[in-house]
Write a structure and sequence with these properties.
single chain, mainly beta, outer membrane lipoprotein receptor (LolB), chain A, 13-stranded antiparallel beta sheet
Amino acid sequence: MDVLVLGNPEGFGEPLSTLTQGGGEVNEIDISIPTSPPSEAEEPVASEEDRAAGQDLLAEVREAMGGSAYDQIENMRQSLETQAGQRTIAQTIATDLSGRIHAEVEAPQGMVTIIDTGEQTYMQMGGRTQPAPAQLRRQFLSGLQQDPTYLMTRAGELEATDQGTQTVEGTEHRALRITPPEGDAFTMLVDPDTMMPARLITQAQGQEATTVLGDFRQESGVMVPYERTVYQGGQQRATTTVTGFETNADFPDGYFSVDQ
């Protein structure tokens, strides 16, 4: 017979060895909650040469995707549809270059509006507004900052490190490690022929996740991946399709703010 005891050993009245008087042993398993998620582990220190090469590579990617056309973008709005298993999630995400965000997500429980003022993320649902937890804000910003179009509008704020080459499915890619100002670092695999991003490699729920970018279309002078498929653990997890894209929209006053 195995007996499972779950709790804080400091609160036990007697040591667990008391239960083994008839034979057996105590096997202790530490299930403490980590003080920080695995994604916040320290990044290896990159050399000055690799960082300089990374900035050069990032500049090449930006040029291939639109170059100076990004300088004309003051804001953008994308409509997206994500198919994950049997669920379909529609969302609209608007951003401006100051870092403010207004997103509307059609969740199963109803419409959820997420607003990031640049300092704090708020969630609105059913007429109620409340601040989002810090970790939820980080996850939300990480997802947005892995969007290639958003990235290239703020390329000057990114830390980039050249990581050489990486071969995937017989194709050799340039590997670029990107650290955004907020959110988690990730690896971008660049097609050496087109200098366009082909894959994004992230960590999700303790597993590596790969987003394959495809169906690039030119919008407002920049290249936008209209299809993004996520694979995790060797399985296809979700496919996101862009259903609408616009830049320099005329947003109403207070669109990126929250009434307290």
